[in-house]
Amino acid sequence: MLTSVAIRDLESKGAAVAYYFCQFSQPCEDPTEILRLLALQLFDVYFSRHLPLDQEFAHRMLRSRKPEDVQDRINDLVSKLLSEGGVYFFIDGLDEAIPTGISSVLEFLNNLLKKRATERVRCRRLAKLYLACSNLLKGWPLGNQATTSSGCRVL
Description:
The chain is an alpha/beta fold. It has one domain (2-125). The protein has helices at residues 2-12, 31-49, 55-63, 67-81, 99-115, 131-134; strands at 16-21, 87-92, 121-126, 146-147, 153-154. Strands 1-2-3 form a three-stranded parallel beta sheet, with helices on both faces. Strands 4-5 form a two-stranded antiparallel ribbon. Helix 2 packs parallel to helix 4 (67-81) and helix 2 crosses helix 5. The chain is globular, with a radius of gyration of 15 Å.
């Protein structure tokens, strides 16, 4: 519920928002598909703001299936959308994620955030984090948090 309120608020301010909700019923097993879903959400925002659509860009976006292609499209979209209110990624339900499925997604988003540290790219996670993911999240802005004795951050 909190995530959806934050998403609606950011969208109302002109931000481009992409999100994924990990669930036990859909356990985040395929990192490429998760990134593709994030890319398609950003593409939808881009498409709604930029008509007529660049057909070559749309073709590349819709044909992207390999992990590196999807990551390139996300980078392209972030570059195109940054000047229009910022870009935000929400990954919710990390406590329900399979670490091997979501880890590379978090690593990619973390690297994206580091590359664009001075720009308006933000990543938010709203869930209890566990040790398997905590190493990937070092350096992320976490807001209110507590750190357990094992080094896990709990939101």
